[in-house]
Amino acid sequence: MSERILQIFNSFHDFLSNEEELREEIRFNVRDLEKSCRDILMILQNIHNENNLEENIIVSEYCAKARVIFEDVRKSYELLAKAVPKDQYYRFHDHWRFVTQKLCFLASLVIYLEIKVLVTKETVAAMLGVKNNREDGFHLDLEDFLMGLLQLSTELSRFAVNSVTNGDYNRPIEIARFVNELNVGFRLLNFKNDNLRKRFDSLKYSIKKIEEVVYDLSIRGLKPSSCPAAQETE
């Protein structure tokens, strides 16, 4: 082998070695994010437990515990941002895409449980410890944020069912209003993204499931004549 060819392939070897080291560092940080994500999810799943639904103070405690773990999430994203070379965000984006979508869902769920409003992208970015705008560096991708909101609708439909099971008949009405407003917002978007368009179908199923819960309450005479959510919108 000539010296010139040897030099060329040695440079290839160095490049591939450095590339693998970088990907391994990214994977290490993503594993930390995935662990934090699982921990937050385990805490928030307690909202579905029997006898917890009528106690808003208990739900608030779950949200507070989740927020503590979001501190670890911010630290992991900070390390991840340092590891990813400048202007190469989308080259490695697939490594953290799905965990970010899940964390967006969990952040939006925390905000809904706390103050019953739709979280903004800016708020989620702050909770994750990343930038909101692409031009500012390591940021929250819009598609990841929207996918998180669609996961929220699925979780809230389950929450509506479990609320009725546990004797809370106001909450499904509140959830129905919120998810319908979310649906109106998503219908304003022009879905050219296949992943978002497919995931949007889940929102339709969530709405149908929640409407069935509300309808069942109505025919059984259990639907409240008024509730906080209704009074706020009047």
Low-confidence runs: 227-234
Separation, N- and C-terminal Cα atoms: 82 Å
Based on helices, strands and strand pairing, what is the structural class? mainly alpha
The largest β sheet comes out as: none
Query: From the 3D coordinates, which CATH architecture of the largest domain would you assign?
Result: Up-down Bundle
CATH superfamily descriptor of the largest domain:
Translin, domain 1
Summarize, please.
The protein has helices at residues 3-44, 56-83, 89-92, 97-115, 121-128, 142-165, 171-187, 194-219, 228-233. With 234 residues, the protein is mainly alpha-helical.
Question: Strands, helices and their partners?
Answer:
Elements: H1 3-44, H2 56-83, H3 89-92, H4 97-115, H5 121-128, H6 142-165, H7 171-187, H8 194-219, H9 228-233
Helix pairs in contact: 1-2, 1-4, 2-4, 4-5, 4-6, 6-7, 6-8, 7-8
